[in-house]
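User: Hi! I'm a student and our assignment asks us to look at how structure tokens line up with a sequence. Could you show me two examples?

Assistant: Happy to help. In each example below, the sequence comes first and the structure tokens follow. Example one:
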Amino acid sequence: MRIPAHSVCTAIRDDIVSGVYERGSRLTEELLARRYGVSRVPVREALRTLESEGFVVTRRHAGACVAEPTVQEAADLLEVRMLLEPLGAARAAQRRTEAHLKVLRGLVRLGQERARRGEGEDLRSLGGWFHETLAQASGSPGLIALLTQLRHKIAWMYAVEQRARPVDSWAERGAIVDAVARGDAERARALTAQHAERSTAEYRLRRPDLPGRRTAPVRPVRSSQHGVNTAGVRH
């Protein structure tokens, strides 16, 4: 494999998320440089970036290793998601362009059609594309970066089970786009918060320490302090 030096970080991150590098495994500069066809300098820079993002840790006598997030750290990600995605939608209602709206509406139409036909294979990727576009429409580079990193980490830590009625999920997304198109920031925020809360039940924590990557549920609960409870997750 040979990739541009500036893409090394993305390539390593993608391989971590997809499971090419197992949690806790060592990441040596020499082997990574050989794999991606670059010098050790961009690899070293990439590892520093990935450490700041929480994908990599540096261990004494071992060097850079893939991080091993705890159950609580994973649950915290879903809480952060339920805070940031509504903020992004509110910003999108204020700053979106016609190009953003065109893409969002097209994705909703495509998602609704495939959901009605029972063609669920592509719905997950379409949903990811929808939320990526909604984040881009916020016009906030810092928020876009946070949401992008959040999606990567959630994809790494969680498997996603499709809703029993995916048509409902896409109807929710359609309502969000309508609010964004009208410039109604508060409604876009509220609808996105509801959508995020409902979809949290779809996430099942990956347990790479168990045979066959069995999963355990992370149950969303309402309380004055926390949006996610991990009581159902075995430690």
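Example two works the same way, sequence first and then tokens:
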Amino acid sequence: MFYQLLKYVLLGPLLRLMFRPRVEGLEHVPEEGAAIVAGNHLSFADHFLMPAILRRRITFLAKAEYFTGPGLRGRLTAAFFRSAGQIPVDRSGREAGQAAIREGLGVLGKGELLGIYPEGTRSHDGRLYKGKVGVAAMALKAGVPVIPCAMIGTFEAQPPGQKFPSPRRIRIRFGEPLDFSRHAGLADEKAVLRAVTDEIMTAVLALSGQEYVDRYAAEVKAEEDQRRKESRRAGVRRGN
């Protein structure tokens, strides 16, 4: 009930007014039945823009930190995310990937749409990064199609560090469903999972037109953060 209220009354109209989304390929999203929508991830606003324009409800796997904030504000934030169709996933530890897959399969098992960002985190520089294989595992285990999706313009509307998005026209592009039934029964084969994931990311890349980086976003961001820290320490030493 609250999901519909957010979509049609509270949040959806505001998002449409702010971003005036131009949507392409919406006919590729099935009107019924389980499917995965796999897209790039450029902004915090992505979580809400796609549900606002889709005819069907879509459930996203979201990082657990959104649900564990302290105090009243934390509880309200968690309630909002759950009401908006987000499922918390702990991304730390060895079991994190398997937990996400279990949650995703639960959604697909109910015949619903599942939204996934295969990069695993928001792009910190607007480029498209290597996808993690969880999306392939879910697609093969559930036997469902994957619809590639590209958000275009949301990075410029709300780049990292900007608390609130700026009004800007954005585009959302959906590609033709990808059928991986030829790999049925091979969900435990690492080479197959990698090949399927790369095929999905290639389709997203064709829709988004981003520069592609064949590395995981989290690794690159961690390296850049480390270099900045070292540069600041070096500057402090020179200042002394």
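Here is something you could point out in your write-up. The beta strands are 22-24, 35-39, 58-63, 86-89, 113-116, 128-129, 146-152, 171-174, 212-213.
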